[in-house]
Design a protein that fits this description.
The protein is of the alpha+beta class and about 350 residues long. It is built from 11 helices and 13 strands. Helix 2 crosses helix 11. The radius of gyration is 21 Å and the shape is globular. The structure holds adenosine monophosphate.
Length: about 350
């Protein structure tokens, strides 16, 4: 029996009146627990070490009802039956998948919110590009060979998290000065302003911004705060700083709330719609929250450099709603929206469509 069938069988045996929402205590867990509680679910926090982290005591409304303390993230696999006994639905976030490892997460015999099949498409930059470009979502140009560098580029590494190790080269000689070891990915450096669009796709909702199946919501938006590039101007120009051995880096340290000028919203929804429709075609759909990471140029054109297929940490800015979600329902965070989706799916007897 494959993992999908196994999980479907486990889910069929769940007591739908006693579902527990669980996640790993990191990333967006406070928001996920807070939202699940508002929707009436019990919550469980999976944490490392012999006792729960003390900082949860500081946030009583976001503290899970109970903790499961483990030695390592991979040990989650050894506790699958304990989680199943509690009717657990796991809500994955970026750190959850990263700490556990994509393969371990994929094989986890506990129902998880969303479609696991998306992992294979987002973790590989080449497949992600096939997905987005075939959907008609504009992306930064790829430069195949260093000798073809004819404009400023950003050199990225496969699977690099938080932009660590990325570097900017304004021409071929700057690239050669660094002489990076492959595999790397050379991409046009898009000059503009960044917007990280937090969408939610529901295959079981039939109102609002409708798609071929279900509907699309735009819940919020942020801009990531990245060290050192975002504040290095305080010390002088990038060129001068190189003489002191200081180079721009892109390590995410926090998030800032932001909104788009209203006339750009049609383009934003168009990209969201195309991304979901293509995902339905390619792998059965990207269900629940996802983020399009974009740059808007001075021609008012979007370039999307990445898709994150689950809740992103930028949504933590909006536990009580955002300038977008307020027009749908007050007090609606992405964490709460996930819990609401599970609640709606239970009501409609369609839980297996949003949990795999
Ligand atoms: P990523 O790991 O692809 O999310 O990229 C990390 C950071 O690098 C982003 O948050 C942006 O600040 C920056 N970045 C990524 N791609 C580009 C691009 N093509 N042009 C300009 N900046 C970029």
């Amino acid at each position: 029996m494959g993992i999908i069938e196994k999980v479907r069988k486990i889910l069929a045996g769940y007591d739908r009146k006693k579902i527990t929402i669980a996640t790993v205590c990191s990333h967006s867990s406070l928001q996920i627990f807070h939202g699940a509680r508002l929707e009436g679910f019990k919550t469980l926090g999976i944490t490392m070490g012999d006792k729960p982290p003390k900082h949860y005591d500081a946030f009583p409304k976001a503290k899970p009802d109970e903790f499961m303390c483990l030695d390592s993230y991979t040990a989650i696999r050894d506790h699958e039956s304990d989680l199943v006994a509690k009717n657990v639905i796991v809500v994955p976030h970026g750190s959850f998948v990263e700490y556990m490892g994509a393969d371990n997460f994929n094989d986890l015999e506990v129902p998880t919110f969303g479609n696991r099949a998306v992992l294979g498409w987002e973790s590989d930059r080449d497949k992600e590009r096939v997905w987005l470009t075939s959907a008609g979502v504009p992306m930064p140009r790829v430069i195949e060979r260093p000798e073809d560098i004819d404009r400023p580029v950003l050199v990225k590494y496969h699977g690099a998290k938080g932009g660590r190790g990325f570097f900017i080269a304004k021409d071929q000689s700057e690239f050669e000065a660094v002489d990076p070891k492959p595999p790397y990915h050379i991409q046009e450096y898009v000059v503009g302003t960044r917007y990280y669009l937090h969408f939610f796709y529901s295959p079981i909702t039939n109102k609002g911004f409708k798609l071929s199946k279900g509907s699309l919501e735009l819940l919020s938006m942020d801009r990531r705060d990245e060290a050192n590039i975002d504040e290095m101007y305080k010390l002088g120009s990038q060129e001068n700083l190189k003489d002191h051995g200081i180079y721009p880096t892109f390590v995410v340290t926090g998030n800032i709330p932001i909104i788009l000028r209203e006339s750009l919203l049609p383009k934003a929804f168009d990209m969201g719609e195309r991304t979901v429709e293509k995902s339905l075609e390619l792998f059965g759909g990207m269900i629940g929250p996802f983020c399009l990471e974009t740059i808007v140029t001075d021609k008012l054109e979007f370039k999307c450099f990445e898709v994150s297929s689950r809740i992103v940490a930028g949504t933590n800015l909006f536990p009580t709603g955002s300038p977008y979600s307020d027009y749908m329902e007050p007090q609606m965070s992405t964490g709460r929206r996930i819990a609401r989706e599970i609640k709606n799916a239970i009501k409609l007897k369609r839980l297996a469509e949003v949990v795999t």
